[in-house]
Design a protein that fits this description.
Blueprint (H helix, E strand, L loop, with lengths): L1 H7 L11 E5 L4 H12 L3 E6 L2 H11 L3 E4 L5 H9 L5 E6 L14 H22 L3 E12 L12 H19 L3 E7 L5 H7 L3 H11 L8 H13 L7 E4 L10
Parallel strand pairs: 1-2, 1-4, 2-3, 4-5, 5-6, 6-7
Helix pairs in contact: 2-9, 4-5, 5-6
Length: 254
């Protein structure tokens, strides 16, 4: 009887079977975990990064179809990458870059412009170069954050940049339809980058989060990657912002 029941159990097909996923900034952290999860769901993955050695190791880890070494903020390199990329592709996730913090009055005009526009410029250039090779129903996924939603001393221009990204994503989604665009807003994510930034303060930060977050644990790369793959697979999602911060924005942290 047990064997008959087991024989009736069906396993769902991989959600991204036959699709191609490009991860800009896929050599570590959230990008690497997203590439790994997409590959596990049947996708061919293409990853890029700035560090050749780290990218090579990442590609071997996830079984990437191909890699490319370049800085995503270099518009010429970005255009060349997509220009040489075989079509069709389905999804592009951009994890490169991060927020800028610091007192507003200590920033000059160029620094303010860069802090406000960097993510949107990279996103726009990715869209401009990618959409001609993307299949309808595919999505661009950008990374933002929830931490900057609270205006606070020391955050500086980060709050303004945080507020701009959801509107940018929604407007872009309308322009590139039926290709989709979506934004993931993360709080603290336990990644190698977080470790390098916090150094010997990392474990103290983890303990603060475990004690204060509603979920009682620290958000990891796998949490963000699971959301990213769901957005890729669910073709009804576009123009929206999806939070993955364990409730961090709703609680007072020490």
């Amino acid at each position: 009887m047990a064997s008959a029941i087991a024989a009736d159990v069906t396993h769902p097909d991989p959600e991204l079977a036959g699709q191609t996923v490009v991860v800009i900034g896929g050599s570590a952290g959230i990008g690497l975990e997203t590439a790994r999860r997409a590959r596990a769901e049947g996708a061919d993955v293409i990853i890029t990064g700035r560090n050749a050695d780290r990218l090579k190791e990442a590609a071997e880890h996830v079984g990437a179809e191909r890699t490319a070494v370049f800085d995503a903020t270099d518009t010429g390199e970005l255009a060349r990458f997509f220009g040489h990329l075989p079509a069709p592709i389905d999804h592009v996730m951009v994890t490169a870059g991060g927020p800028t913090y610091g007192p507003l009055l200590e920033m000059d005009g160029t620094e303010v412009r860069d802090a406000l526009s960097d993510h949107m410029v990279v996103g726009l250039e990715v869209a401009r170069n990618a959409i001609g090779k993307m299949r309808p129903g595919g999505t661009l996924i950008f990374m933002g954050g929830t931490g900057g939603r609270r205006v606070g001393k020391g955050l500086g221009i980060a709050s303004a940049a945080t507020a701009a990204l959801p509107q940018f994503t929604a407007a872009l989604a309308l322009e590139i339809a039926p290709i989709r665009a979506n934004l993931i807003a993360a709080g603290f994510v336990d990644t190698p980058l977080s470790a390098s930034l916090l150094g010997d303060q990392l474990e103290a930060r983890r303990n603060e989060l475990r004690a204060n977050l509603p979920i009682g644990r620290v958000v990891g790369s796998a949490d963000v990657a699971a959301l990213a793959v769901h957005i890729m697979a669910n073709t009804a999602l576009t123009g929206a912002t999806y939070d993955v911060d364990g409730g961090q924005q709703f609680v007072s942290m020490p």
